[in-house]
Amino acid sequence: MSKVFKQQMRGESLDDFSQRLVSTTESERRRMAKQVKRFVRYLHERPFQSPYSVKEVIKSGSLGKGTAVRDLADIDLVVFVNGLTSIDDLKEEREDLLEDLEDHLRTTAKISPEKSSKYSLTYDWHDIKVDILPAVDVLSLYGSPRKVYDVMGQFKPRREAAQQFSASLAPLQRDFVKEIPEYVKKVIRLVKLWKEENSLEIRSYSIELLTIFVWTSNGEENPGTDNLFRKVMRKLATCETLQVGFDDNYKCSAYPSMSPPYIRDPANPYMNTLERINSLDEVSDCARRVLQRL
Question: Smallest Cα–Cα separation from 49: which of 1, 91, 99?
Fold first, then answer.
């Protein structure tokens, strides 16, 4: 096999390479778990002004799902806020909540965000990329994913519903990926490293979903690391025409159709995880070059 990755040795299988340099080590996982625990503790120390308080902190991102690449770990800390009773409340209060979080962490943890958006704050915490997102616990509020999706369907435009509810649906996103076998996660990490080494504009979540789709489409058996990686690359080589959906939390056919390319979020029927990516042709070209070496 020709080299696919910069640090892969000639003749080394992807499975061996993953074990050697891509998957996190036990000591690294312990270190990161300890640092995340410290960070979460700060979030529980009354970061918000009255009447808001922290209900729960959900750990998602690659660390929460078990798909972290060695030296490229990230975690999403979704902060469910007591005192918010709807997504409309969150929209109205999000800016102030983020400001409270930023002030609180500057005082307690002595850190400032590397960047911010209207939805989140991003920190570099002991070599872990941490995104903090205030959210509403909509699954508890409405009682089931189906009822949440009914509420989302009332939003206009629906694209806004996809964005506004995204963080609040993090438990479903996390669990969908977290429960898959380790041999599938091994391939996810390899594809993420491929994306990183080639500076490709495709979301890590899209990579996770596509890899799971390829695996389930082939009977949920273990085809081997090299073989599953090759199958994912074949899909990525036709990135501009992808049509990927899952019926685990809802029936895709019951919701508005999407125009290719799309990878529909299994937690969010209105979210196309490939949306707003303008360089999918580069992803396809790079995947085709990899296939020539496999």
Answer: 99
**What is d(CA 240, CA 282) in angstroms, rounded to the nearest whole number?**
10
Closest C-alpha among 184, 204, 205, 181 to residue 193: 204
Taken in order of first residue, the domains within the chain and their CATH numbers are 14-162 (3.30.460.10), 177-292 (1.10.1410.20)
pTM over 0.70: yes
User: E strands of 50-114, at which residues?
Assistant: 53-60, 74-82
End-to-end distance of the chain based on CA atoms, in angstroms?
6
How many angstroms separate the Cα of 165 from the Cα of each of 99, 158, 216, 262, 293?
20, 11, 27, 19, 41
The whole-angstrom separation of Cα 109 and Cα 224 is: 44
Q: Which helix (H) or strand (E) holds 189?
A: helix 182-197
3-state helix, strand, coil in the chain (%, to 5): 50, 15, 35
Task: Give yes or no for a cis peptide into 261 (omega within 30° of 0).
Answer: yes
Contact residues for 290 (Cβ-Cβ < 8 A; gap 6+): 4, 194, 233
Tokens representing 168?
Answer: 């609040």
pLDDT tens track for 212-267: 999 999 898 999 999 999 999 999 999 999 999 999 999 999 999 999 999 999 99
Strand partners, 54: 81
**How buried is 129 (Cβ within 10 angstroms: 0-12 exposed, 13-18 middle, 19+ buried)?**
middle
**If DSSP codes are grouped into helix, strand and coil, which group holds residue 279?**
coil
